[in-house]
């Protein structure tokens, strides 16, 4: 005889209750994603290492206050990116000062067997990309970086930033248009190779 808890009122079998996926705590998220958050906010235009460190710490304090990441439609990185963008916005409102371009914010030029000339060319190309990124407002830049450089899909961006996917498409379209125009002004080139054709 079946347990009554396993049957509904009409006698049909009821599946056992599903356990919700466990939340990821702030400490685990920090260990797994702090370096990525630091690189992300560098690409948003922060240059000073102490400022980047402060934003990373503030981001994970918010994560701690929210009780960590609860699995849902957004992935941990896009969820963290949305928090980091809010922290950067808050800091900029409080400080109201322009960042100083003392280091390349897209990333270090790849080292390897190309020699000094190849390393210099790669560093110059990255500097051009960063200068073009710096022309975008913070929100468009964040979406552009997440989509174009980190490969995050549009549905994840929509879930993380709490906007319809059509809004993500239109913001990415505008960001790409403005980025390509800025890149062309800076370099005289038609477009950088890393930009994807469409979301």
Task: Provide structural commentary.
The protein has 199 residues and is mostly helical. The chain has 2 domains: 26-95; 115-187, Winged helix-like DNA-binding domain superfamily/Winged helix DNA-binding domain (Arc Repressor Mutant, subunit A). 59% of the residues lie in helices and 0% in strands. Helix 4 crosses helix 7 (165-187). The longest helix is centred in the last third of the chain and has 23 residues, at 165-187.
Features:
7 helices, single chain, mainly alpha, Arc Repressor Mutant, subunit A, 2 domains, 199 residues
Question: What is the string of helix and strand elements?
Answer: HHHHHHH
- Please mark out the parts with pLDDT under 50 across 5 or more consecutive residues, or reply none: 4-9, 97-111
Reported CATH architecture of the largest domain? Orthogonal Bundle
Count of individual beta strands = 0
**Any idea of the CATH class of the largest domain?**
Mainly Alpha
Structural class: mainly alpha
Distance from first to last alpha carbon? 55 Å
| Count of separate DSSP helical elements | 7
Helix proportion: 55-70%
Provide the number of structural domains: 2
| Mean pLDDT, all residues | 79
Described by strand count, sense and barrel closure, the largest sheet is:
none
The name CATH uses for the topology of the largest domain is Arc Repressor Mutant, subunit A
Our Rg estimate from Cα atoms comes to: 21 Å
**Which term fits the overall shape?**
globular
CATH superfamily of the largest domain: Winged helix-like DNA-binding domain superfamily/Winged helix DNA-binding domain
Beta content comes to under 5%
């Amino acid at each position: 005889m079946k347990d009554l808890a396993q049957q509904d009122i009409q006698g049909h079998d009821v599946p056992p209750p599903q356990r919700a996926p466990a939340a990821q705590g702030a400490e685990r998220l920090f260990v797994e994603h702090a370096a990525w958050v630091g690189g992300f906010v560098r690409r948003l235009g922060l240059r000073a290492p102490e400022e980047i460190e402060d934003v990373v710490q503030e981001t994970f304090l918010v994560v701690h206050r929210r009780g960590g990441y609860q699995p849902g439609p957004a992935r941990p990185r896009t969820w963290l990116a949305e928090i980091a963008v809010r922290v950067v916005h808050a800091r900029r409102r409080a400080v109201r000062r322009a960042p100083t371009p003392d280091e390349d914010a897209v990333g270090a030029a790849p080292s390897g067997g190309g020699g000094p000339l190849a390393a210099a060319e790669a560093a110059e190309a990255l500097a051009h990309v960063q200068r073009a990124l710096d022309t975008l407002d913070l929100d468009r830049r964040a979406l552009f970086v997440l989509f174009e450089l980190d490969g995050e899909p549009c549905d994840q961006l929509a879930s993380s930033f709490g906007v319809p996917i059509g809004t993500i498409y239109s913001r990415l379209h505008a960001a790409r248009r403005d980025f390509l125009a800025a890149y062309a002004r800076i370099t005289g080139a038609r477009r950088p190779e890393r930009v994807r054709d469409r979301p």
